[in-house]
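User: Continuing from earlier, I have the next pair ready.

Assistant: Great, send them over.

User: Here they are, in order.

Assistant: Folding the first of the pair now:
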Amino acid sequence: MRPGLLALSSFLGLVAASLGVPAAAAEKPSALPACKGCKPALERVAANPLRNGDRARDQYRRPVETLSFFGVQPDMKVGEYAPGGEWYSRFLGLYLREKGRLVGLYFDTTSTAFDASRQAGIRKAAANYAADVAKFTGFPAERFAAYTLDAVPEAEKGTFDVIIVPRMLHNLMRWNIAESEVARMRDLLKPGGVIGIEQHRAKPTAPDDYADGSKGYLREADVIRFMEGQGFELVGESEANANPKDTANWPEGVWTLPPTLALKEQDKAKYQAIGESDRMTLLFRKKA
């Protein structure tokens, strides 16, 4: 078995052993209350002139629909997992800067998934996060925070309303750190707190070696089963980030499509016309 497949082995086995009924079909999710007043506030952020450089990707990332579905209210404490290019950080920073609290949550740097150089890079990114968001939003850096998951202060545990995980679960699977990272995030959530996952979606019939994270795609039923095994219950599913043009069977994986365009100029117009990947958008609540 290749490195990176171990994280999936336990729940792929459960999938194979099941009766073939998709996890989502077993019982209907118990819906959370609607995010009252969220959409107008999110729309104002989406239209903010400070986002002129980010807005082109809204058609694929649909922040208003996604964050409204996740129930992110302006006065909440929200964790953004693996901020990366900080596209969501900038949006959430504007949305939460007055009443809420935005915290960047970075990989556990003690993990064997990262060499010393990468560990140092992750720590540096976390150290710069608050200043980055402050510079963009115009609010003091003290309004924001960031931690690597191995260095979160004890007082932060059990204080988060929502943690969002955009397009990252496949990496955790292939690096064999999904269970440990999700467990740490679970500890940070309040009782009944939620994790919102946006993830490149494989077809239900995709073979295991395509849907193991190595191509960027995961099967939706597998993600649901995995999260349920980590102490969460599914409470909502959205098609806000669906893209039926994505056949999700590219030899170069999800990176064939924009924004990466792994094949460079080869069939570039074709992939640009397809757009970014088909994505599941799932909401999970922490069980007691």
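And the other member of the pair:
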Amino acid sequence: MNAVPPTVPARVRTRLRAAVRRPARLTPEETRDRALVLRLLSLALQYPDAELAAARPTVLAAVRALPPSPAATELAAFTTWFAEQDPQTLERHYVETFDLRRRSSLYLTYYLHGDTRRRGMALLTLARRYQAAGWDTSGGELPDHLPVVLEFAALAGTGAGEAPLRQHRRGLDLIHRALESAGSPYRHVLAALLALLPPPSRADEEAVTKLAAEGPPNEDVGLDPYGTYGHGEFAPPDTFVPPLPAPPASRPEGAR
């Protein structure tokens, strides 16, 4: 989608953007199905421990029962692969994909704020959003972890619930690009999620391309855009370590 022409008055441009980003009004059945898709996406992006591995037949059946949609098609492609792999392969692929590569990290505020002080404030704001909705955020994960954000979206609905996903659309696009480049089956999960969101603007696409080339903001002058590893060495291509934790003083209570 192209950006709104600058000749349109500012107030009208604002209203047009809001209309484009706001999901269409859904029927109760569509709302229920959308929430189920979001929960399945959250589940798919969690670490494939023994409990999740054992639940694969149930997850596969739930995906196959979804009404036809682009998101359902992408989820079916992922869960078919997911159901066929042995547990050790799933665990190893997950760690290599999400824990060892910054370009496909699942911590969304990293892409917007990098390892800066602003990231800590963004985490606190997100945690307060959850708390204001009456949602318990003491599960142990940081509030910007994508499975957590997806579960909140499923519970709170298309408006406030999906707002964090829309806010971090550019980070989601970058994760999807990285997964496609790596040939990971998890690319289908991100494709399913992006199918639920409004299409990117030209500015979004340009920002993602720049982010892919330069990396997110970093307050450590002179370091590689994606950070260093070990004792100051630059990380070789595609061997990114996970984003640094947010500053302890800015973390929401109960997160680690």
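Worth noting for the second one:
The chain has a mean pLDDT of 80. Residues 221 and 241 are 18 Å apart (CA to CA).
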